[in-house]
Amino acid sequence: MWSLLQIELFKISRRPRTYIAFIAIAAIVLIFQFAFKADGKSYMNLMLQSVQDSFDMDRSKAINGYFMCYIILNTLLIQVPILVALIAGDAISGEANMGTLRLMLTKPVSRTQVMLVKFMASFIFTIMLLLWMAIMALLVSLLIFGADDMLIFRVKGDESQILQITKDDILWRYFAAFGYAAVALTVIAALALLLSIFAENSIGPIIATVCIVIVCTIISNINVPIIDRNVKPWLFTSYLVGWKGFFYIGTTPEGQPIPGSLENWPAIRNSLYILVAHIGLLLTLSVIIFKRKDILS
Amino acid sequence: MKKIFLICCLLTSVIALQAQDITEVVNKARAKIETVNDYEASGRMKTNVIFLKVPVANVKIYFKKPNRLKVKSEKGISFIPKGAVSINMNSILSGNDFTIIDAGEEKMGNIMVRVAKLLPNDDNSDVVLSTVYIDPVNSLIRKAKTTTKENGTFELEMTYGKYAGYGLPDKIIFSFNTKDYKLPKGMTFDFDDGTEQKKPATLPKNKKGRAEINFSSYSINKGIDEALFK
Fold first, then answer.
1. Residue A284 maps to a domain
2. B49 inside 8 A of chain A by CB
């Protein structure tokens, strides 16, 4: 199993498309960092608007490494599923396309093992992608902008809120958020892997995965009560942004943030359960379908 | 006719005496405050505004006569209410360019206070009206309400302790107007955790905010560097 995984990882590392994702992330992050270094105050002015009429605050302190990472993740974690689909969607269909799938299955390994190894390789790729994001978005941002308290701008119900998290209470939230994002993106990897079984070229499963993510995201963001109640809870896309829950700090009745607290841990935990259930379901389906599949290529 | 004339004279002199009396009360309170040329104070500021969830901040407050005041956070980001300059009574009582009107007496807790309304004589002044509640026994301002043209109404409540001799409070509760805060749509992509937000009956455009400052120490008349006010 381990040597199979090593082979899979070697194959991923040899494909040029693997590096597209890393280059794309680096490019987006660097553009963001340059833009905020040059004119971050304009963004802060937009977000603070009426607050500036009532309060004085040092906006330059607010644009710091932690804040930058949050802004970058906010944008990137919507696009990253596409990058994950690039690799996971190619796992089986790529082999079929090159004609190596039949050859591979002639080896003394079960189809279940092949499927699990493909999934694990996609999972490791996802983790590497997130690590790269953490280095670029968090570490590099901290080097460029420094560290300070972090402001979270949020809409809760009908109200807009500004949450302030103190500098020493942020890092663990990022570790947790990246952990959550790994689970969320693994759902995308599992979905792309499942779709990859049905195709003989990589484009189909990649596009199909992206389309499913887009359609489900749109449904997740439609504010129609009947959809809110009956559809949204079952869509994995409703939980992709759950990582933000780690930055919604709990507050006292007077509105002071409580260090080390989360506003709604049960909601985050339930989201994680649902995402893990999606992974389990998609992976099981993948194994069952792959085992029954007549391999002709 | 003579009797009516005498009563009128008596009433006029009583009103005059009372007016003089409130002026004296205000002047005594001002004299106490004016013994302070500058100070540096350390304190903890707790901000309570509906849309702002910020921690208690350690702040330094610098004051220099006549009415220069700067509130600085010791570390981290801090939201300082814009009208915070009025937490210093000098900004209300400085100069003599206002008319004092006696508004009677009121009880604040166990203390009987004199209420004085200060009307600025300058038509261009940002302050429209200040109402001060003065403890006449200790010559301390216990409460002040200031209505401005541009920034709404500020309200101050002060508790005194060991710095009462200088007219400097140990605790200030500062109430001010804040505008409704709305984020631009589509900027945040929030995680809906399913918690219901209690809806207020009406959503007012202007809301009240509150800042509570507890002073731990003052350094009085030791000189303050000008650069701190820049």
1. yes
2. yes
Contacts of A46 in chain B (CB under 8 A): 184, 187
- CA A252/CA A193 separation, integer angstroms: 45
pLDDT by 10s per residue, chain B, length 230: 566 655 555 455 444 444 448 888 888 888 888 888 888 999 999 988 888 899 998 999 888 887 788 888 888 888 888 776 666 777 677 666 788 888 888 888 888 889 999 888 887 777 788 899 999 888 888 999 988 887 778 888 999 988 888 888 999 998 888 877 777 666 666 666 666 554 444 444 557 888 899 999 898 888 888 777 77
Whether A288 is covered by a domain: the verdict is yes
- A56 to B79: CB separation less than 8 angstroms, yes or no: yes
Beta-bridge mates of residue B179 = B206
Alpha-carbon distance of B117 to B132, in angstroms, equals 6
Chain B nearest-CA distance from A80, in A, is 15
The interface predicted TM-score (ipTM) is 0.77
Domains of chain B: 18-184+202-218 (2.50.20.10)
Tell me, yes or no, whether A297 lies in a domain: no
Tell me the residue range of the domain where A33 lies.
2-292
CA–CA dist A134, A157 (Å, integer): 30
Question: Which residues of A fall within a CB distance of 8 Å from B80?
Answer: 55-57
Which chain A residues touch B208 with a CB distance below 8 Å? none
Separation between Cα atoms, residue B39 and residue A190, nearest integer Å: 65
